[in-house]
Amino acid sequence: MPSPVRALPPLIIPKATKTMSTGESSSTNYQTARGRDYPSIRQFTVFLENRVGQLLEVVRRFEGTGIRIVALSISDSAECAFVRFLVSHPERGREILERAGLALIESDLIALELPEDGQPLLQVCSALLQAEINIVQAYPLLTESGRAPAVAIMVDNTDLAAEVLSQRGFRLLNEDDLLNR
User: Fold this and answer.
1) CA 44, chain centre distance (Å)
2) How far apart are alpha carbons 42 and 5 in whole angstroms?
């Protein structure tokens, strides 16, 4: 069963905003382009025919681009596989997947570093349960040696989950953090 996809809010361009350093005449900043200042990361789900070599074909498209796959999850059925990617450069990653002609869904996830004490997933699950937030998907982020472990989760209320986890002292990751993972 495919995961639920939350639609992005409509693009709103305020009357007066700061200009971007790369486009002095532009009135759209990062916040309006993504709908808000998002403490989340984008997941791309592609649908592949359930056939040997399909995943390799997709992964090879990132070769030589400087884009790293920082998380991967695969769910297969008899006819197709749902492959979920988190990449270090989401805009360029989406472009590569679209150019390949792949059916694509973009979703927002929360990524957070796991504390080293006790049972970190128990702490995450407890915090979300107390706020009555459901975890829909979860998988680890691939990290370099010496970096804190991290997990990506899809929840049924991204805004509230980010607020709850932040208040509980978890370090939320954003897309800039994926560049250095």
Assistant:
1) 7
2) 12
- Domain 41-107 annotated CATH 3.30.2130.10: yes
- Is residue 152 within 8 Å of residue 110, measured between CB atoms? yes
Provide the CATH number for the domain formed by 109-178 in this structure. Answer: 3.30.70.260
- Quote the tokens at residue 113: 């570093």
pTM exceeds cut of 0.85? no
Tokens 């800039």 sit on residue: 176
Instruction: Please report, in angstroms and rounded to a whole number, the separation of the first and last CA atoms in the chain.
Output: 30
Comma-separated ranges of CATH 3.30.70.260 domains in the chain: 109-178
* Cα 48 to Cα 67, 111, 138, 170, distances in angstroms: 20, 25, 21, 35
List pLDDT tens digits, range 65-83: 999 999 999 998 888 899 9
In the three-class reduction of DSSP (H, G, I as helix; E, B as strand; rest coil), residue 94 is classed as helix
Q: How far is CA 3 from CA 22, 130, 155, in A?
A: 36, 23, 10
Return the H-helix or E-strand segment holding 122. Answer: helix 120-130
